[in-house]
Amino acid sequence: MATTNKPIVVTVTGAAGQIGYSLLFRIANGDVFGPKQPVILKMLEITPAMPALEGTAMELEDCAFPLLHDMILTDDAKVGFDGANWAFLVGAFPRKAGMERADLIGKNGPIFVGQGKAINEVAADDFRGLVVGNPANTNALILASNAPDVPKDRFAAMTRLDYNRARNQLAKKVGVNVSEVKRVIIWGNHSSTMVPDIYHARIGRKKAINAVGKRWYKKEFIPTVARRGGAIIKARGASSAASAANAAINAVHDWALGTPKGDWVALAVYSDGSHYGIPEGVMYSVPVVHPGDGTWQIVEGLDINDEIAEKMRITGEELLRERAVVEDLLHG
Ligand code: NAX
């Protein structure tokens, strides 16, 4: 999207949480929308978290960010999304040790009903929103379904952290800088069924699969990427925060300003059922290219081998099961 000097409204939900604490300062610093784009931050929280949010806002003030034109702190979704051009939907209860993402559906799904309705009513015409709060794919579906006047392609769920993790594991294995790793794919759900696919990836001039070997890819890489979130919870005693914020920044930056030439990124978007056998009506991670005008295009024409196709089917079925659990929250 073109940069202008008119401030854009950026809503962050769960702004007093640990991802929020890493995210807000970088948005205000221009890391997402560029060094010439002023922002108004609308920070949405639940009532008990408002005092903590005040503290975060005081710190934002103390950074004296020239791009931060205003801040609105609220526990009312209609105020939080009023005029929003972009939103980072982070607010949700995080997964605790021993808890699967599926356990979160019942707890977090209803949050996205109210927020979808508020977006439908008060967000800007060019609204776009990235859902980070888990279960991200299904929450994004609930959100989109409750904002029927907003095109479904304006909503996405974040699989960029999985993509970043995958790229780093590959770079580490081969001993190259991560910038050498291109065309990694994350298919499906942001959960342990996700499919990190490196059959189309390159490391420098080599095919990634040849550089790392199939055995390592299957035995080490896939489980490491898929279970990285759990490993971080175990090590830190808390879920990924700075890396999650960084991934959200990468995702919205590229969505707004464009993907690098010759590469693609991972984003979970609404499936219309016309690509790669992916079921219709779920938010499914695919390789996308962003032209830089706030849209995305699915990378077409990739050959999918049987091994990946089977895994894609399994993660798609998980998303369908999640959708069935929240059926009563979908009013699209
Ligand atoms: P925190 O518990 O630190 O912060 C969440 C914040 O959301 C809290 O301040 C809470 O008050 C607020 N909140 C809860 N309900 C709300 C509502 N209805 N409206 C507005 N705010 C609300 O969690 P944090 O570590 O920041 O994680 C946030 C979410 O990101 C969790 O759901 C977590 O599971 C998810 N993650 C998603 C990732 C992804 O790759 N998609 C990775 C990181 C992270 O696990």
CATH class of the largest domain: Alpha Beta
Average of pLDDT: 95
Rounded to the nearest angstrom, the distance between the terminal CA atoms is: 28 Å
Give the CATH topology of the largest domain.
L-2-Hydroxyisocaproate Dehydrogenase, Chain A, domain 2
- How many strands? 14
Number of distinct helices: 11
Residue fraction in strands: 15-25%
Order of helices and strands: EHEHEHEHEHEHEEEEEHHHHEEEH
The CATH architecture assignment of the largest domain turns out to be Alpha-Beta Complex
Task: Describe this protein's structure.
The chain has 332 residues and is of the alpha/beta class. The chain has helices spanning 18-28, 50-62, 77-80, 101-122, 136-145, 160-174, 208-212, 214-226, 228-236, 242-257, 306-325, and strands at residues 8-13, 39-44, 68-74, 86-89, 128-131, 155-157, 181-182, 185-187, 195-197, 202-203, 206-207, 265-270, 283-289, 297-298. The strands form three sheets. It has a nine-stranded mixed β-sheet with strand order 3-2-1-4-5-6-12-13-14, with helices on both faces. A three-stranded antiparallel β-sheet has the order 7-10-11. Strands 8-9 form a two-stranded antiparallel sheet. Helix 1 (18-28) packs across helix 10 (242-257) and helix 6 (160-174) crosses helix 8. It binds ligand NAX. Residues 13-14, 16-20, 44-46, 49, 90-95, 111, 132-134, 136, 158, 161, 190, 229, 239-241, 244 line the site of ligand NAX.
